[in-house]
Design brief:
It is built from 21 helices and six strands. By secondary structure, the protein is mostly helical.
Length: 510
């Protein structure tokens, strides 16, 4: 029966080009097949599988914001419309709505489940709310205005809703997830075993989602002059971050050193105490593993055991390059992240070294994953043997520091120095720090390098004219208000739904 449910769900997700526009007539009847938890589990797992694969795919925003001295993605980073929509980096939101559809399916039909303990019912309901909160949050960040679906059976087309309404929808769902989900330490799988998987929502990951949601909401109110109280939003973000930092919502703690952090990040078989939410590696997904960590685009040698150092500057598998001078300027003096995050940096950055190429070798994730192929080695390096740690406690410390700084609260410095202390970096204020908010932004850049956050960090702080490509510096205030910082809505979505309108900035190109 589980296989049957999976097939039915796949049919529902592919029976039309967009679930935003046409819902199959038999969609609402699938609840009749939720006979036991195993069948419900298959839908919950499929929902998380979509999240895992989509959040680790190429996000144009992430590539726009990645710190790099050289890249193969100049067109995307320079806002060239030819690289978006049907170009080299697709910007479709269909997968978001596929997963939201499954979340709604669970919520609408959970009452049909019989002989399942309340704790297990709450688990699946909590996963559905968490998924909706996460997905609407990401829709708001990527596209601003987005569609808010009502249920699985409405067949009429939807128009997009305003950005703040999308964010508030995400907040409402995240709060419901927080209320119903257990602590990670109390999570159990369907067999009653203690969960070691941080892909699923729990109280801690819901709190991290809410901390980011409120920080984002406050920043867009400030940036776009929306109606709302940004100060209150920053205070809410601080409160949710504090719950995580003070262990009120789970036993999360910082790794002791940057090297220990890298060891945790590089091993999918251990529970990383700093990690709050992860996209779990699936090495058996079709012929190509998911999820791929962003750092993969910086790395071949030395993680790939078949690569050679001389190949590095010319390796087509590498999309982003950092110069030694850039890394040396980021991690000053005794900062241990320089040699933890970058392979043999102090030695390999010297022209006399056999490992010298002028480029730094990112080494945050250290173990390669290979697939069998018909070549001389019999296998090919494809990515890291690692989960994608999406949110971790250091991120939350620095997010709280950022919100404190925006509120004029001196405790921002304490959170910033907590992360610097672990790295044995100079405490704030140190040489070249500048103002506190900018120092916190730069600390996030250093601590979270190649983890996919930098574009959204830039936007939250309003630094897009100075911290992104020159194309962003040329944007006028009107361009920004018209939606230049969001992604264009794909032409496929517009074709299938004539109520959808491209934002004003991108309508000039599509």
């Amino acid at each position: 029966m589980r296989k049957y449910i999976y097939v039915v769900c796949c049919f529902l997700l592919t029976a039309c080009d967009s679930l935003l526009d046409v819902v199959p007539e038999n969609a609402s009847t699938i609840g009749n097949y939720f006979k036991d938890e195993k069948e419900l589990e298959s839908v919950t797992s499929e929902m998380h599988s979509i999240i895992r694969s989509y959040f680790s795919e190429e996000n144009a925003h992430v590539f726009m914001g990645v710190l790099a001295d050289e890249t193969w993605f100049d067109e995307v980073r320079n806002l060239q419309s030819s690289a978006l929509d049907e170009g080299s980096m697709y910007v479709d939101w269909k997968n978001h709505y596929d997963a939201i559809y499954l979340a709604n399916l669970i919520l609408e039909n959970i009452g049909n489940i019989k002989n399942v303990e309340e704790e297990r019912v709450n688990f699946h309901v909590g996963q559905a709310y968490f998924a909706k909160g996460l997905l609407y949050f990401d829709l708001a960040r990527r596209w601003g205005k987005a569609i808010i679906t009502k249920n699985t059976s409405t067949t009429s087309a939807y128009a997009t809703s305003p950005t703040l309404e999308v964010i508030d929808t995400a907040i409402a769902n995240a709060r419901k997830a927080f209320d119903i989900l257990p602590l990670f330490e109390d999570m159990k799988d369907i067999s009653g075993n203690k969960s070691v998987v941080k892909q699923f929502g729990c109280k801690g990951s819901a709190a991290a989602l809410l901390a980011h949601l409120y920080a984002w909401k406050g920043s867009v109110i400030d940036l776009y002059k929306f109606e709302g109280d940004s100060k209150k939003c920053y205070e809410e973000s601080v409160d949710w971050a504090t719950k995580l930092i003070t262990k009120k919502v789970g036993q999360y703690e910082l790794a002791k050193t940057p090297s220990e952090l890298c060891q945790y990040l590089s091993d999918p078989n251990v529970v990383n105490p700093e990690s709050i939410f992860e996209l779990m590696l699936d090495p058996y997904s079709s012929s190509w593993p998911t999820s791929k960590v962003l750092s993969r685009y910086y790395v071949n040698w030395p993680v790939n055991k078949y690569a050679q150092v001389g190949d590095f500057p010319y390796d087509y598998n590498i999309s982003f390059y950092l110069y030694n001078e850039t890394v040396r300027g980021l991690y000053l003096n005794k900062d241990e992240r320089r040699n933890a995050f970058f392979y043999h940096f102090d030695e390999a950055s010297q022209p006399s070294s056999e490992e010298y190429t002028g480029y730094a070798y990112l080494y945050k994730y250290r173990n390669g994953l290979y697939i069998k192929e018909n070549n001389s080695a019999g296998e090919t390096f494809v990515t890291f043997n690692a989960n994608y740690c999406y949110w971790r406690l250091a991120d939350i410390y620095l997010l709280r520091a950022e919100c404190y700084a925006k509120l004029g609260d001196s405790r921002a410095k304490d959170d910033l120095n907590k992360i610097r202390e672990r790295a044995k970096a100079d405490a704030y204020p140190a040489a070249g720090d500048g103002d506190l908010q900018y120092a916190i932004f730069k600390e996030r850049e250093k601590e979270l390098i190649a983890e996919g956050h930098r574009y959204y960090d830039v936007i939250r702080n309003g630094y897009f004219k100075t911290e992104l490509s020159p194309a962003f510096s040329r944007l006028s205030d009107d361009d920004v208000q018209d939606g230049a910082l969001f992604l264009p809505i794909s032409s496929t979505a517009q074709t299938m739904n004539d109520l959808i309108r491209q934002n004003r900035y991108w309508s000039k190109f599509f």
